[in-house]
From TrEMBL:
InterPro entries: RHF-like (IPR036567), RHF/RaiA (IPR003489). Pfam families: Ribosomal_S30AE. Coiled coil: none annotated. SUPFAM superfamilies: Ribosome binding protein Y (YfiA homologue). The gene is raiA. NCBIfam families: yfiA (TIGR00741). This is Ribosome-associated translation inhibitor RaiA.
């Protein structure tokens, strides 16, 4: 799967990009028709400690899924986003297989 990582208002290091790629590659276990993923990493300008936002958009044939999570670290936000996407993809796979 092709994963594009976009950092808004900061530069992203290779380690974080590798983590995002590795974590999103695991989604193909749940639904093998995922075409691509766009990950937007943002730092919100708030006084909260939880100011890291990860927005993950994945493209599957006929649909797009968008999940947005805000946490203390980008790793945690990506982790929570991918867990939500896992559930969405499993639901979609079950829905499609029930129609066949």
């Amino acid at each position: 799967m092709k994963v594009s990582v976009h950092a808004v208002n900061f530069t992203v290091d290779k380690k974080l990009v590798d983590f995002v790629q590795e974590r999103l590659d695991k989604l193909e276990k749940y639904y093998d028709k995922v075409v691509s993923a766009d990950v937007f990493l943002k730092v919100e300008k708030t006084s909260d400690k939880e100011n890291k936002v990860a927005e993950v958009k994945i493209n599957v044939p006929g649909d797009d899924f968008l999940v947005k999570k805000q946490c203390k670290t980008f790793e945690e936000a990506v982790e929570l986003s991918s867990e939500s996407l896992e559930r969405l993809l499993v639901k979609r796979k079950e829905k499609i297989s029930s129609h066949i």
